[in-house]
Model the fold of this input.
Amino acid sequence: MTISRCDNVLILLGIFFLGFSSISNAQNNSHFDGFFADLGVGYRNVNTSSSSSLTLNGSAIPSSLNTEQPSSTVTALTAGYNLRVTPGYILALGANISPASGQAQQVQIQALNQTIALAGIKPLYNYGFFIAPGLELGEGLAYLKVGTQTQVNNSNTSPNFYGYLIGMGYKHIVYESIYVFGEADYAAYSSQTTNKSVSSSGRMINATVTSTPQGSRFLLGVGISFD
Done:
């Protein structure tokens, strides 16, 4: 299911990029050469699939799991270097970091005719490294983005999550080397399992929770190219 979704996204990104290439004027525009830095703000939608198992004295306990899916505003700082490959084509290498805005996943397990609350995952920030092939369109740059992404969590709530990020965006020069941009990204991470012992009605219950976060973000922002 996840692989199929990833393939579909990559196909759409490829169509997007090829479509723009057909209208490129392939001029050697120097606006986007060299180092760049930008700041984007926008909306992030996090979708974490979770499963749980509970045991009491070594025996499994029937249970159901409810998790809150946080959605929030997001800020992302990006910096990198644009390398000209051929006239009209740019390859960017860069890194990004994004604070997690204090969002925490809330977990509740229904078992033994009661609700057991667990401390949810508390992300601190996300960071990643990427490559971004781009196509110049006059005063603009259309680009794709592919890279690794890491979600750093509070060590008391969960190990870190490691995954990938894919996206696409467009930058447009508004004054000399200053540009505005819009970008859409999708990130998916590998699963992590945490084990917790919970006291309930004088009994110690062992809870195992497996989480697999994924999500999208949409950014608008401003940046500068140090050509």
Confidence is low (pLDDT under 50) at residues 15-29. The domain at 2-226 is CATH 2.40.160.20 (Porin). Helices lie at 2-21. The longest helix spans residues 2-21.
